[in-house]
Amino acid sequence: MESHAVLLATIIMVACIGCSQREEPAKSSSGLADFTVPSMSLGPIMPIAEPVIENPEKITLGKDLFNDRRLSGDGTRSCSFCHDLQNGGDDGRRLPLGIDGQYGYVNTPTVLNASLNFAQFWDGRAQSIEEQITSTVQNPIEMDGDWPSIEQALRADQSMVRRFTKVYGANVSAANVINALATYMGVLLTPNSPFDRYLKGETSALDEDQRSGYELFVRLGCVSCHQGRNIGGNLFQHFGVMGDYFADRGQPSDVDLGRYNVTGREEDRYKFKVPSLRNVAETAPYFHDGSAATLEDAVAVMVEYQLGREADDEQTRLLVAFLSSLSGELEESLR
Amino acid sequence: VSEYLHDLQRAASSARAQIAFGGFLFLVMVALLFMSSRTGKVEIDEGKQMLGNIEAINFRLDGAMSWSMFEFQMDFDFVTQSQKELLDAVTEFREKFPEQGSAISELFERKLTVMEDFKTTQSVLRNSRTIATQLIEDAWNEPGFSDAADLFTIERAFLTFMSKRDPASAAELEAITADIGARDTALAASAEWESISAHLLTLTRYVVQMGELMGEMFVIPLPTTIIATGLEFDRQLHDAAVSADQYRAALFAMGLVLLLFSGLMTARVRRYFRMVQRTNDELESRVADRTKKLAEVNNALRNEISERESVESQLQIARKLESIGQLAAGIAHEINTPAQYVSDNVAFLENVWRDLGALIDDYELSFIAGDVDCERSRRIWDGAEIAFLRDEVPAAFTEAAGGLEQISKIVLAMKTFSHPGSDGLQPADLNKALESVVTIARNEWKYVAELSLDLDPGLPAVPSNVSALSQVVLNLVVNAAQAIAEARKTNELGRIKVSSKIRGEFAEIAVEDDGPGVPQELRDRIFDPFFTTKEVGKGTGQGLAIAHRIIHQQHGGTLRVESADGKGARFIVRLPIRVASPSELPNYQSPKLLTA
Hints:
The structure holds two protein chains of two kinds.
Chain A (H helix, E strand, L loop, with lengths): L1 H19 L35 H11 L12 H4 L46 H10 L8 H9 L2 H11 L5 H13 L7 H6 L8 H13 L15 E3 L6 H5 L10 H4 L7 E3 L21 H13 L5 H12 L11
Antiparallel strand pairs in A: 1-2
Helix pairs in contact in A: 2-7, 4-7, 9-13, 12-13
Chain B lengths: L1 H36 L3 H29 L7 H20 L1 H43 L7 H17 L2 H17 L1 H5 L1 H29 L2 H148 L4 H10 L2 H33 L7 E3 L1 H11 L1 H4 L3 E6 L7 E3 L1 H22 L6 E10 L2 E8 L6 H4 L19 H13 L2 E6 L5 E8 L20
Parallel strand pairs in B: 2-4
Antiparallel strand pairs in B: 1-3, 4-5, 5-7, 6-7
Helix pairs in contact in B: 1-9, 2-3, 2-9, 3-4, 4-5, 4-8, 4-9, 5-6, 6-8, 9-10, 9-11, 11-12, 12-14, 14-16
């Protein structure tokens, strides 16, 4: 019996060796990036889609973390402290009010539609939302948090531990906190703005002024940079293509160097990420230095320094009317 | 057998060595298999796939850029998205293949930078060109330009530059713009001219910049590096395939060796099996032999045991007969005494009858012959002592009848006692049996002790073998009497008490005496066969052993002794009142094996 088993095993083994190496050639066609061509867009701006919520519990967790002050060093700041979702997703200040009465150096960008931007921060130093979260949480002026303390604080909270275990099958960890926040921020989109509805064919969504404003937006050349589905947020541009903005403004500071602070390249001096114009009417004041208190001011600066033109009052009014049509809707449950 | 075993041992040790060798071969094969899987073929395949992916995305990025550059695409989303995808793909590749990845990654970083600059430049360039065109067009419709020729000149220079895009035409456009601005001060002061000239200058600057960017872009050797890395992977794949082939060949060879070896092993194992089979057969026949002999011995033993058992039952009967024999003298005496009464009284009655003869004769003479002689009659009457007879004759009859009754009682008791009985248990009146025993044994105890009976009239019929049980009680009573007799120093009688009563589910019979008792050290042994304290020849030492067996084995009861030194002994028999089924009877173990 035993001898038969040995014989059989050997035969099978030899047979296996004979066959095993004859595997099929490595797959070469599948697994490669899919090479579909985007449909030719009719215009330079595309509407954005409704957010897709795949894991509501994770979203709720992210939302609660977004409002959780335990993420800051002194327990006084949550993300929502500066990113007020009821008011355009920013703080409405020229410069952010940081820990211990300090001020941040640049104007707070909105968190709404931020996930559609190709990079985060004015100088684009974060290439993903996750990097941005870590940077902001750890920034000594902004939140002054550190992950070990945050983990410890959240782990002391039984209900948090339960929720993380349910969503991640694991205890609270920095990676999970970041993921939950990033997932939440990923769905903070504002579809169905009047302009998006207009783009989708609902011509009555814009009034006459707004339609004229859009024509002007294209004709003056704003759309050269503020394009794509996020109406900006996909390239860097000099602040002051057609004029020296910083010389005219005065009081130069390090943050004015923009992208240069990240790359150190001379070409990147004064370059900033072109911000998205979605919900722009809600996010005053404007620019990285928060120097433009109103949309009118911002339009004037942009037309002068970026386009080398001058907008009269009527044009400014029309442009502002158009820009107001870019405010979309944030789903109530996400606020 | 030892020869066979030796052979077998040798075979086993050589088999062990062969199995070890086989195991070694097998391990070598596993090692080879492991090595052949470690040629890195799978990883390289994966690397090639990733590289192909990078190449495809890179190609698409270039396409997206061209699309944007030629202004078919008015937004940069497609470029940006491709950039992001390429960044992810390259990052993943570099994590997996740090060596090849770092070179590609570095080149890609350069390309990414150029790509950003491209978007920045392209957006301005396109804007300025559009606006310049638009402003010149507007200018034709406005009276701002004093000289249409100037407008024409500048438009022509602009269009020439836009079609040629070379430094010379750029310089010409710049020169013409500066010239017109200097000549026509009125125009130069207008906002329109300011815009036109600014955009034209911006355009010349940005077109040159775009040219530089494109030049920079095309010298980045990203495609060639990707292809070179792919070729390197191909070489590695080839090497891996070659070494995998070698391993496979070695494996195949080893497999053949193992096959051959296992064939050999099979043959050997077969031989060993045959050898073991032979040894086994031999051993089996020997075992059968032994078994047969053992069976014979066993049979002999069994016969012996049954013989012994029959001897034992005969012994029990003998014992009974012996006790009857021993009792015979006493019983004879017991019968003799009443027989004496009967005999004396009968003799007395015979005399009476003779004395009464004269009286009867006289009565005959007087009454029948008519020879009445009062004197004679009186004399005879007085001689007959009638008053005496009137008292004594009935007493004599009574005494004789009493004697006969006594005799018949003893005979009945003997009959009860000596009844051979059956082996089975029959409900029986224990009290009656006890009375019989006491009667039979009367001669044994009456000179040494007073015996009292304390029988419970409520005792139910108890399943028992009366004959055997009587023998047990007789034994106990005789023992008690003997014990008292041995210890007796005065003429004072000892006391024996025979009692019966119900105790729970048992009927209890107790025989107690006030003799010397059973010493502690003997108490455990008195039920052993052949144990006796009596003089040689006076007892067999079987009495209590047989009694023990009768009670325990036959009746499922208990027999034990309670005794305090010098204060008498009390033997207690307990019999279950309820009929026990045979299976409930305890498996009898004699205190010591009778067969031992």
